[in-house]
């Protein structure tokens, strides 16, 4: 059974963006210091292509209102990329 990879887009305190991707149950991939949302989208598309080769779908994480990003990661960005 293929594992699903979820990702979330973060606003960093310096105005840049970051992406945190999690492959269940315990693998975390992180990309920081992306200057624009276009760079974020390009990185996510690369992740999709890589994970497709492994048979693992990539989906946007569903934010829970009670959850906050861990300290130092920044806040979640509302922009969504749908594929």
Features of this protein?
1 helix; alpha+beta; 5 strands; 83 residues; 5-stranded mixed beta sheet; 33% strand; single chain
Structural class: alpha+beta
Q: How many E-type strands?
A: 5
Q: What characteristic shape results from the CA principal axes?
A: globular
- The residue fraction in helices comes out at 10-25%
Low-confidence stretches: none
The biggest sheet amounts to: 5 strands, mixed
Please explain how this structure is put together.
The protein has 83 residues and is α+β, with helices and mostly antiparallel strands. The protein has one domain. The chain is 20% helix and 33% strand. The chain has one helix and five strands. Strands 1, 2, 3, 4 and 5 form a five-stranded mixed sheet that branches. The longest helix has 17 residues, at 37-53. It starts with a strand and ends in a 7-residue tail after the last strand. The mean pLDDT is 81.
Outline of this structure?
With 83 residues, this protein is an alpha+beta fold. Helices cover 20% and strands 33% of the residues.
Write the topology of this structure:
Layout: E1 5-11, E2 17-23, E3 27-34, H1 37-53, E4 58-60, E5 75-76
Parallel strand pairs: 1-4
Antiparallel strand pairs: 1-2, 1-5, 2-3
